[in-house]
UniProtKB/TrEMBL annotation:
Transmembrane regions listed in the UniProt entry: none
Gene3D superfamilies: 1.10.287.1890, Vaccinia Virus protein VP39
Source superkingdom: Bacteria
GO molecular function, one term: tRNA (adenine(22)-N1)-methyltransferase activity
SUPFAM superfamilies: S-adenosyl-L-methionine-dependent methyltransferases (SSF53335)
Protein's name in the database: tRNA (Adenine(22)-N(1))-methyltransferase TrmK
Pfam families xrefs: TrmK
């Protein structure tokens, strides 16, 4: 993977960036995504934010190597603190983290999203946390995608400003993904269900404290949801 040829996962993330956008890529690593977006004339400008010193230096080096210093600003900053008001960022991408971490990044500096009208988020796990954040903060899902790459399953959630309502099933599985129900979706939730059943079996022989009972009921509810949606 490089700035000219992204992984399938990041290529799909890039596909949801609208032409003419000003993008902030949070946790940008080597800045491959913003470089690609500018090279492809999708983004007019971009900010690459990185909180770790090594990846920050890698991003700076990459932007210089691609001769994109006039179009991409690399900032050493924590989360959305990489965004300044004068950037006029309208699109934020965050990829390759857990859903709860992405939600906490958005929550921590939510005032920095004032000019932003699109969030493109790619959680590695627990996408539900992002849907919960969206419900609480008046963002709505406009697209979702699930894909498998190198034996790992990823989800992509695209949010725009607005209100939505989600059923418990939609919150867990994703409203768009539930409609599509492709093979990767089925594979993910069959695997999750198998793990939940293993946990339930372990709980069955454990001392049933209040916390364990709550965990048991939560897992049973999720198993019921998945069974109803997959029909198995």
């Amino acid at each position: 993977m490089n700035a000219q040829r992204l992984s399938e996962r990041l290529t799909r993330v890039a596909s949801y960036v609208e032409k003419g956008s000003i993008v902030a890529d949070i946790g940008s690593d080597h800045a491959y995504l913003p470089c690609y977006l500018v090279h492809q004339q999708i983004a007019d400008k971009a900010v690459a934010g990185e909180v770790a010193k090594g990846p920050y230096e890698s991003a700076r080096k990459q932007v210089r190597a691609e001769q994109l210093q006039d179009y991409i600003t690399v900032r050493f900053a924590n989360g959305l603190q990489a965004i300044e008001s004068e950037d006029h960022v309208d699109t934020v991408t965050i990829a390759g983290m857990g859903g709860p971490l992405i939600a906490s990044i958005l929550d921590q500096d939510i005032d920095r999203l004032k000019t932003v009208n699109r969030l493109i988020l790619q959680p590695n796990i627990h996408a539900k946390a992002i849907r919960e954040w969206a419900l609480l903060n008046d963002w709505k899902l406009v697209a979702e995608e699930i894909l498998q790459e190198d034996d790992k399953i990823y989800e992509i959630l695209v949010l725009e400003r607005g209100k939505m309502t989600l059923s418990p099933a939609e919150l867990l599985l994703g409203p768009f993904l539930m409609v599509d129900r492709n093979d990767v979706f089925r594979k993910k939730w069959q695997k999750e269900s198998a793990e939940w059943k293993r946990i339930l079996e372990a709980i069955r022989v454990a001392e049933l404290s209040k916390e364990v009972q709550m965990k048991k009921e939560e897992i049973e509810e999720k198993l019921t949801i998945v069974k109803e949606v997959l029909g198995a």
